[in-house]
Amino acid sequence: MNPKDALFVIVASWTGLSAIAVVVSQNIVRSAAWLLFSLAGTAGIYFLLGADFVGATQLIVYVGGVLVLVIFGVMLTAQGPFISLKTSTGDWGIAGLVGLIFLGVLSSSILFASWPVASDARMKDAAYSKSSVALGQAFLGIKEVSGPGNVTSFPSNAPRTRLPMGYLLPFELVSVHLLVVLIGAAYLARAKRRLRKPR
Amino acid sequence: MSDAELLNGYLLLGALLFVCGVVCMAIKRNAIGILMGVELVLNGANVNFVAFSRYNPSFEIEGQVFALFVIVMAAAEAAIALAIVMNFYNNHTTVDVDTAEELKG
Amino acid sequence: MFVLNLLSNYVGIRTALASVALIAPNVGDKDFERLKLRIILTVVAVIAAVVLITFMLMSAIFFVWLERKVSARIQDRLGPTRVGGKFGWLQTLADGLKLLVKEDIIPTVADPVLFRLGPYIALVGAYLAFIALPFGNRVVAFDMNIAVFYMLAVMSTEVFGVILGGYASGSKWSLFGGMREAAQVVSYEVPRAISVLVPVIVAGSMSLSVAARAQSGPFWNWYIFHDPFTFLAFWTFFTCGTASCKRAPFDLAEAESELVAGFHTEYSGFRWLIFFMAEYGSMFAISGIAILLFLGGWNTGLLPFELSQQFGIVGNIVNVIVFILKGWFLVFVMIWVRWTLPRLRIDQVMMTCLRYLLPISCFLLLGVSCWQLALTRLGWLDNVRYLLAGGSVLLVLLFLVKALTSASAANPTQLMPGPWQLDRAAVPDVSQSAGPS
């Protein structure tokens, strides 16, 4: 087993076990801690897949942002009885059964399909490994593909063409969306004045 | 492991994260626990995207671009969901979703 | 010993790279070649990891001693003078031994798993940042082309150790301290990231090696002098970095006079030591980023050429030493600022971030983008560098001259007037004017 496979097994089992622990744990704060490990493990998966920028974004946004937000929410509402809200055994049984069936369906569809797989030369391809440059260009509206742009699935060492069809519009839309969400969240979470009861 | 087996491994991990998220959403009574399930679901989908972006010959960085968009939208959605949960807590002094049945009937 | 480690690391990485280049075209090669490559890469990775953790912990030992000495001198006392000679060189070793043999106290109301977990999350967050930090030309564990983004991302996971430590201690003071600290750290990450973008725009790459290599040569090539916007960006980055390391004047949550000791109140012995190693590690990482992006990285700034290109591996060793000394100097500045300025209140801390540093850093980002665009049209704007560099050198020299020749430097012991003066005629006799009139 080469180091790449060993690393995949380690990181994937770490992520999977943490995800299962999120579900199983009764204490909400411990669930948040296992969620931290799960998200950090997912970031490790992204680094293993060669997606450095996505992995770093996962760490900075999910772990350093969303999870801190979640844990603030947990701390503000975790007063005594709400730290461990128990679910009945019947609910556990049904949810577990549904989850197992769902997992079975997904795994069988994954294992029985034959996915087209690119050769490993892509990792050594200079254009692919500088993924942050390609990502930056894509968000500015330029997409580089190998081979002429009208047909996909050319080998990676074909001469590259630049197409003027990037992801600039979704990028701008997401920026406006974030602004809207910022304003909305600030409005929802504002300190409300208490109405004076009429005497 | 060959590339195909490794790809299957990543997809299975994505499926596991997704299923854990769905079960978490179904099982938790704490509203914030449900939010954690949503995060797990989105992460599972993201792992799928990035794995295909790496191994499928027709994609170069499309999967990573989509994964980035999903991460950003998930952060936005988590912020709003927590604001809603905070409002609920301020009004009802509980985060137990089983008590949130005033619109029933 | 450390130099030998670094040498073997350097040689090992070069060998590994050479062997990759040799066998890359032949995919279906002999199994022995592949096995050799795997062994080499694993050994190189392990050596790099061990070297980095050794450096981080040794630096932390040095910083603890430095903090005690610097704080002592600023407070007009001597500091450790007994352990290990006249200057207390081995004081930190004694401190470490004491902390190791201390009793491991865990409060009964503490969450046992999370209490034990907190310090290690903080340490891992600080340590992972060192992977992408270049110490010299090509002396880096993993040369990423998004190095600075990765470092900021990984250091933002440290806040979780703080939160878990604060919550799991089971006391409300720790919880308050942890929450305040988390709010402060997370808020200051935004202007920190925006200030980091300013030299990244000038360098054209998020890679720290590329940014540092572009600053080779005389010191007016350094990015801090490149234009007024990067000059200001250095100060905002340093301020935001100090705040996100939870150092004074932003250390409200861990100050002794405030919430006992904030999130690490209940931590004693070895666990407290881990928290502090994490803090000093992230201080050095922030200083490292500041040096590589603004202060010329591993270049001395006095020579017109780049040392490792002229003198090979010996030049690279000098580069590494220069980088480490610069890093230690910036950490010394952080310690100096801590013991000089008074603490900010929590609302002042958040106001500084949201009302001042965030708009300033956005303005600087806009400014540097316009400057880079203007440079392509108006090439003479480049000469602003010499103005800024010369002006800064002049200011530093002026300050030194003033400090060394001032009256208080000449007469260090000036007593304030008071009753200990023997000249009783100069002191008014208050005993007769006291009493009911």
Compact overview of the structure:
Chain A has eight helices and two strands, in the order αααααααββα.
The quaternary state of the protein chains shown equals heterotrimer
Summarize the biggest pleated sheet of chain A: 2 strands, antiparallel
Helix content of chain A: 55-70%
Order of helices and strands of chain A: HHHHHHHEEH
Examine the coordinates and then state which fold CATH places here, giving the name of the CATH topology of the largest domain in chain A.
Four Helix Bundle (Hemerythrin (Met), subunit A)
Shape of chain C: globular
> Approximately how much helix is present in the residues of chain C?
55-70%
Number of strands of chain A: 2
- Can you identify the CATH superfamily of the largest domain in chain A? NADH-ubiquinone/plastoquinone oxidoreductase chain 6, subunit NuoJ
* N-to-C span of chain A: 79 Å
Tally of individual helices of chain C: 14
Proportion of strand residues of chain C: under 5%
Q: Show the largest interface.
A: A-B, 85 and 72 residues
- Element-by-element helix/strand order of chain C: HHHHHHHHHHHHHH
Give the helix/strand class of chain A. Answer: mainly alpha
What is the alpha-carbon Rg of chain C in Å? 25 Å
Protein model, in words:
The complex is a heterotrimer of chains A (199), B (105) and C (437). Chain A folds into 2 domains: 1-79, NADH-ubiquinone/plastoquinone oxidoreductase chain 6, subunit NuoJ (Four Helix Bundle (Hemerythrin (Met), subunit A)); 121-190, no CATH class. In chain A, 66% of the residues lie in helices and 4% in strands. Chain A has helices spanning 3-24, 28-48, 52-77, 89-112, 121-124, 126-129, 131-140, 168-188; strands at 143-146, 160-163. In chain A, helix 1 runs antiparallel to helix 2 (28-48). Chain A is extended. Helices cover 77% and strands 0% of the residues of chain B. Chain B has 3 helices and no strands. The mean pLDDT of chain B is 89. Chain B has a single domain, classed as Helix Hairpins. At the A-B interface, helix 1, helix 2, helix 3, helix 4 and helix 7 of A face helix 1, helix 2 and helix 3 of B.
